[in-house]
Amino acid sequence: MTPADIITSIRSSLNQSQRAFAATTGLHQPNIARAEKHGWAVTTTTLDQILRATGHQIIAIPYQGTTAAETAIRVRHALTRSTGDAFRQVIQLADDLQRVSGAERLGPVLTPPTPTTSAQYDNLIAGVVETRLDADQLPHPAWLATIEPLNDEWQVDHDDPDHAQLRASTPPRLAARGVLLSAAELVSV
User: Fold this and answer.
1) Domain holding 36: CATH number?
2) Residue 144 forms part of a structural domain
3) Other CB atoms closer than 10 Å to residue 153's CB: what's the count?
4) Helix (H) or strand (E) holding 180
5) Alpha-carbon distance 135 to 112, whole Å?
6) Helix (H) or strand (E) holding 48
7) Quick one: 179 and 99 in the same domain?
8) pLDDT tops 70 at residue 189
């Protein structure tokens, strides 16, 4: 994650406007906006000031894949640019989490992701994380409970004509969120 992504993720997790976040961190609001939107070069001193003021830390863990927070940022960019690879980003997260086991799966999903601009994709990310954590009977980060399940079911693969069979093959955590996706889609080949 870039420093801009870290700042955006922290601000989002606190549910603060840029103005409120500036007051919390002691920075000027225009600098927050520049960091988030224009990639303003954030110094380690400034990043440390933000982390301390908000009660966050950066922790290095031995992990080579994408995190839930990075995935949400990439999905948001894919959706706003209509690149068509939003789904691929979530599958990459599923693959990366599958490659690690036990408590090593927790690190990449602890940072709350920023909203993707799509409740469907927010629930897809959350459901994938829950499914992977459940495989090792791991606890769930608190941010998962903040994502409201979809009111109407979303069939991710619109080409699947057998709705009942798709529902039956969907992992329980995804189905509970209103996301219909065959478990086979979450398995790398």
Assistant:
1) 1.10.260.40
2) yes
3) 15
4) strand 179-180
5) 20
6) helix 44-54
7) yes
8) no
Q: What secondary structure does DSSP assign to 100-158, as a single string?
A: S-GGGGTGGG-SPPPP-S-HHHHHHHHHHHHHHHHHTTPPPPGGGGGSPPPSS-EES-T
Residue 20 belongs to a domain? yes
Instruction: Let me know if residue 60 belongs to a domain.
Output: no
Would you say how long the chain is, in residues? 189
pTM confidence score: 0.82
Q: Is there a single domain that holds both residue 167 and residue 93?
A: yes
Residues 100-154: tens digit of each pLDDT: 988 889 999 998 898 999 999 999 999 999 999 999 999 999 999 999 999 999 9
HSE, CB side, 13 Å, CA atoms: give it for residue 138: 22
Rg of the chain's alpha carbons, rounded to an integer? 17
Residues spanned by the domain of 91: 70-186
Token code pair at residue 10:
């922290």
pLDDT level of residue 38 (50, 70, 90 thresholds) = low
Q: Which residue type occupies 26?
A: G
In a domain, 61, yes or no: no
**Domain shared by 117 and 77, yes or no:** yes
